[in-house]
Amino acid sequence: MNDTVSGVRIAAMGPAHAGQVLAIYQLGIDEGDATFETTAPAWQAFDAAKLPHHRLVALDERDERDRVLGWAAVVPVSDRCAYARVVEHSVYVHPGARGRGVGPALLTALLDSTDAAGIWTVQSGICPENTASLALHRRAGFRVVGTRERIGRHHGTWRDVVLVERRSPGIT
């Protein structure tokens, strides 16, 4: 994969990106509205959890060192065969790279990848306070399917999660 959008190149995520990917994940965790996690995992755990063919990074074309601006990846929602083509995804953009089209470029490339693989549903849970993520997903064709109220405690506070999903247009 070698798509270019506004100075951003989308590429397959690999071990060489590990440190930067996990640092961006930790920045998202620290902001408080991206996930209920409190610490990014070690690369081995992160790597083992994500489906290998749907892990992407956005690289800054202006930086010869392949600086990672953001990442996207999917995990299976269940090991039951009925859900074999349903995944949950994550998209994280470095705070310093926001507003450059990194999120839309990553999400578009990720959906192209999952569509081509026959994955029929891509879903996610988004904190309602994360309005930028909700807007990104709406523009990418996701729909809100509901809100899980007080689904988890995060730093001592009950939090809601908005569930979004996108069905592949190729599935009939």
Description:
The protein has 172 residues and is α+β, with helices and mostly antiparallel strands. The chain has a domain of 118 residues: Gcn5-related N-acetyltransferase (GNAT) (Aminopeptidase). Helix content is 26%, strand content 35%. It has 4 helices and 8 strands; from the N terminus they run ββααβββαβαββ. It has an 8-stranded mixed β-sheet with strand order 1-2-3-4-5-6-8-7. A hairpin with a 2-residue loop joins strand 7 and strand 8. The longest helix has 15 residues. The chain is globular and about 45 Å long. The protein starts with a strand and ends in a 5-residue tail after the last strand. The mean pLDDT is 92.
Overview in brief:
The chain has 4 helices and 8 strands, in the order ββααβββαβαββ.
Give unreliable regions as ranges: none
Q: Got a strand count?
A: 8
Helix fraction bin = 25-40%
Shape: globular
Distinct helical segment count: 4
Largest sheet, order of strands side by side?
1-2-3-4-5-6-8-7
Largest sheet: 8 strands, mixed
CATH superfamily of one domain: Gcn5-related N-acetyltransferase (GNAT)
Provide the structure class.
alpha+beta
Oligomer: single chain
Give the arrangement of secondary structure elements.
Elements: E1 3-5, E2 8-12, H1 18-31, H2 43-49, E3 55-60, E4 68-76, E5 86-93, H3 102-116, E6 121-126, H4 131-139, E7 143-154, E8 157-167
Parallel strand pairs: 5-6
Antiparallel strand pairs: 1-2, 2-3, 3-4, 4-5, 6-8, 7-8
